[in-house]
Structure formats: C-alpha cells, structure tokens
Amino acid sequence: MKRIIIILFFIxxxxxxxxxxxxxxxxxxxxxxxxxxxxxxLNYRDVEGSPYYTSDFIKGVSxxxxxxxxxxxxxxDIFRDEIEFMKENRTYWLKKSDILYVRYGSDILVLxxxxxxxxxxxxxxxxxxxxxxxxxxxxxxYNPEVPPKGYSETIPARFKEEVDEFYIQFxxxxxxxxxxxxxxxAIFANNNSALDFIKKERIKATKIDDLQKLFIYLNSx
Length: 221
Hints:
By secondary structure, the chain is an alpha+beta fold.
C-alpha cells in the first residue's frame, strides 16, 4: 500500500508540472477514422476480440504542447496506436504531434518516439516518473482469417492481446526496451547502487511491480 501511494505521489508531481494551462481549445488538424478504415480496408466488426483499451469512450483530458487542453471522452485504439474522440457525431484521431500527454481515466499516456520508426510518435503508459521514467507499451496484434483446409473449419480473424513491453527513459535520452534481467543489468552497468538494489530485491525485468519498486528507488537518489 505504501509503495502504491509513493507511485501515485510521483505521478501527481509529474502531472502538476504540466498543469498550468489556459482555456480549453478544440483539437484540430485531425484525421477521420473513416479515412483510416478505408485506407486499411479492415472492418473491426468482422474481427473477433477488441483493438481497444476500453470498449467505450471514457473521460479524458488531452494536454497540448501549446499550453491548452481539451476535456473530451476518449478511446485508445491499441492496435492502431491512436486515441479517438468524438466531434459532431464523427470520430477523429488526436493529432500526436500536438499532444504533450493524455490523462485517460486513471492512466497517463505520454508520447515518445515509436519503436519501429523513430520518426513517428507512439503512446506509452507512464508507470513511474521522475528523472527516470518507466513506460509500458501495450500491444494488440491482428490475426487474419484462415480459410478451411480439408475437414477443418474457418478460423475467424481476431485481435490478440500480446504481453506488455517495458521501456526505460533516462532524462534527455531515448527510450530503451528491457525484456530480461540481463538487459536490465546492462542498462545499469555503470550504476553499482542500482545493480545492488536489483540483486538485493530480486527485481524481475518482466514484472511491473518489481520495476516500479526499482524506479521509486532510482528517483529517490
């Protein structure tokens, strides 16, 4: 319980640093969802499972780099890595290059360079903040329909939730993916204090609770 309170405290401090905004503004220069579906020729209604973090639009606040913000219901499409909002009964995407961060229900999503293409921005869940940030990338993959073979039946197209990926971002540096204790130790090779803590606390690079404990320690130094 104490660890959870400390985590929330650091996240609140991070939010507070960006909370000095002026009046709300309408987010413009967006792409329409219909254009996206026409481009990708994929109808979500024909696919089993869901590409979304939440099935419905939920309360959210989008904080813009120009100091404004917009409080509108949002829905995060994990598969496309896009956040949708409604305007005049039409669905739009947030313009990533305009966004500083997004408060999505009880979660905070930050934008940083996407993994597959460093020229593109991607959404990451903020799990611990301070000089060192712990980020989580949620992934949903698409498995196309498999036609029947012999006596087998058709396997319908479906969305599949993959294992979360964890990333570390040191102040002023690009994010680094960590998926094993070997990689975690390599990242902190020059930080004996961190290495001692990882060993003493038996930190596992695949467990979010362990990584949050590590980052609370790192950001308290």
